[in-house]
Design a protein that fits this description.
Number of domains: 1
Shape: elongated
Number of helices: 7
Radius of gyration: 19 Å
Oligomer: single chain
Distance between the termini: 51 Å
Strand content: under 5%
Helix content: 40-55%
Amino acid sequence: MSLDRERVKRLFPNLANELEQSENKIPVNSIRTDSSTAEKAVAENFCHYTPDIVDFIRRCDTEQQAIEIIVYMEKRGEVDKEYARCLRQQLKEKGVRSFGAKKETDYYLKHGEL
């Protein structure tokens, strides 16, 4: 079933209004392909939180730095070859910021509850 814009407006007028208004838009600035990793990343106060490879990549300024992180974590056995391949592919196709906004210095101190 395909819907064009006019049909959506007729069938779902409130939804169409919400979709067209810019005030309800939320930017998506990171992509996580592993749902269990994503769940860990939303820790409320970072208590007992261990940063994962995406957290380290988000501190990188360049793709080369991100590649070094992936290689290092793969050598240590902290990520498997398949996940490392997926990370490299995402990095190549979408860039370093596709993993999320850059994490500034003292990120966990500023955003955690102490």
